[in-house]
Amino acid sequence: MIDIFYIVLPIYLAIALGVLLVKTKAFRPDDMRILGRFVLNVAFPALIFHALVTRPLQDVFNPDYMLAYAVAGVVTVGASIVVFGAQGWDAKTRAAGVMGASCPNNGFVGYAFFLLAMPDLAPVILTLNLIVENLLIVPICLMILRGAETEGRGGVARLGEILLSVLKTPLILAMLAGTFVNLSGLWVPAPLLQSVGIVAASASAIGLVVIGGALASLPPGTNVMRAGQVVAMKIVGFPAIALGTLALLSLLGWVALTPEFYAALILSAGMPSFVIYVVFVQRLNLEGFASLVLLGTTASAFVSLSLLLAWLT
Questions:
Q1: What's the rounded Cα separation, in Å, for the pair 289 and 188?
Q2: Do residues 22 and 209 lie in contact, with contact meaning Cβ atoms separated by under 8 Å?
Q3: Cα 26 to chain center, whole Å?
Q4: Higher-confidence residue: 155 or 234?
Q5: pLDDT value at position 158?
Q6: How many CB atoms lie within 10 A of CB 22?
Q7: d(Cα 3, Cα 137) in Å, to the nearest integer?
Q8: Is the distance from CB of 64 to CB of 256 less than 8 angstroms?
Q9: How far is Cα 302 from Cα 5, in angstroms, rounded to an integer?
Q10: CB under 8 Å to 78, separation ≥6 — which residues?
């Protein structure tokens, strides 16, 4: 168990550094947003591109993993809608709760976690998770948010617009470029590849510090009880649904995962809510609610990820 603690603790110490930097005014919240944009738009795309061009393509793309993760994510979205709706939540709060429960932080926290727990597979797991999240789970949640914002009008109509905007993000462009280079056999000069690798290596450390900075500057929250239910759905419900999904799909013979990818999928589902969640719900005037969810999932995941990792390994 002490080995598990040594894997999880460095992640939260790096997050604590981000909190300290903002609280002591060494960095401003705006500085952290700039660093966050660098990670999302430069470091992570470099990491994905590097992973795709330095490995055989069959070692990166795992259809069984992506299918199971996609099904688990969609089921979590549906379960969240049902659970929160059955309690009479208004449309806007329900939509914010669904996104908080269904969108894990596999970019910043997840990659750093797997870099320590499964270093050889970390770039592959990141790539698989971000493909499913950016092409499926996040767009679905954005449509739900849009539908709540317009009281049900225009949510489905914006599907094409949302998907097009996702396809134009640096993460997806890096994936497409890396796949093209891998399939075409195009030669990438060693100095260029090493440079991309250097930039990619910065993703984990800077990403964790950015999370700390975001947590240090969150607005006051409200709806504590409801936020707690979202935290429970994200930290407990999503991994449980992922476990059930894997059991069912394996029984049907639709997926067959190695023990490492089996564990990685459940752990990925148990990551805290992603950082820009608060930004997405600002248009609903629920950033206080989202801040509580983000804080709660990030704090709770310290314990839950340790227990999951101990159980799965």
A1: 46
A2: no
A3: 27
A4: 234
A5: 62
A6: 21
A7: 32
A8: yes
A9: 9
A10: none
- Supply 58's token pair: 């069959």
pLDDT at 220: 63
Given a contact cutoff of 8 angstroms between Cβ atoms, the answer to whether 39 and 207 are in contact is yes
Residue linked to tokens 């591109």: 49
Closest CA to 248 of 129, 83, 72, 104: 72
Angle formed by the axes of helices 91-102 and 224-232, nearest 10°: 40
Within 168-272, residue ranges assigned H as helices are: 170-184, 190-201, 203-216, 224-232, 238-252, 259-269
Structure tokens at 152: 């049900």
pLDDT value for 162: 67
Over residues 238-247, mean pLDDT? 97
38 vs 162: which has the higher pLDDT: 38
What is the predicted pLDDT for the residue at 241?
97
Residues 15/207, Cβ–Cβ less than 8 Å: no
What are the pLDDT digits (tens) for 124-143? Answer: 898 899 888 888 898 888 88
Residues in the chain: 313
User: How far apart are alpha carbons 313 and 301 in whole angstroms?
Assistant: 17
pLDDT for 78? 96
- Please state, in angstroms and rounded to a whole number, the distance separating the CA atoms of residues 186 and 76: 40
Residue with structure tokens 């793309």?
61
Closest-CA residue to 142 (of 155, 128, 126)? 155
Tokens of 219: 């607005």
Backbone phi and psi for residue 93, each to the nearest 5 degrees, phi listed first: -65, -40
